Amino acid sequence: QGQLVESGGGSVQAGESLRLSCAASGSTFSTNAIGWYRQAPGKQREFIAGISRDGITKYADSVKGRFTISRDNAKNTVYLQMTRLTPEDTAVYYCNGGGFNSGGYYYSRNYWGQGTQVTVSS
């Protein structure tokens, strides 16, 4: 399996910003779309954003307009820029190697990073 390593999590105040990074192995990065998911305590893991190999993006409604996903092909890295954070954004954030279906929706494959904690206080 390919390797995915997240970084950039931390503790911030509401309204502040964070940028998460997902560094992928070469084969994982070049053959998969990359997505971000998050899991809050007691909740199911949910899709946040995805980006295809050619840069097409998809966002969950809960983060649209606040979060931006991007990829740097030279660095095999995908970023998640998070702005206007709220306490409801507190979760462990995971990146994933997946794809997009014909309907334009991101689907996950069994490539997951270890997660990075984001805590937003009010």
How would you describe this structure to a colleague?
There is one protein chain. The chain is globular and about 40 Å long. Strands 2, 4, 5, 6, 9, 10 and 11 form a 7-stranded mixed beta sheet that branches. Helix content is 5%, strand content 54%. A hairpin with a 5-residue loop joins β5 (46-51) and β6. The protein has one helix spanning 26-31, and strands at 4-7, 10-13, 18-24, 33-39, 46-51, 57-59, 67-72, 77-82, 91-100, 106-112, 116-121. It has 1 helix and 11 strands. By secondary structure, the protein is mainly beta. The mean pLDDT is 94.
Question: What attributes does this structure have?
Answer:
mainly beta; single chain; seven-stranded mixed β-sheet; globular; 122 residues
pLDDT < 50 stretches: none
In percent, how much strand structure appears in the residues? over 45%
Main sheet properties = 7 strands, mixed
Distance between the termini: 39 Å
Radius of gyration equals 13 Å
State the helicity in percent bands: under 10%
Mean pLDDT: 94
Q: Count all strands and give the number.
A: 11
- Write down the overall geometry: globular
Number of helices: 1
Structural class: mainly beta
SSE string, helices as H and strands as E:
EEEHEEEEEEEE
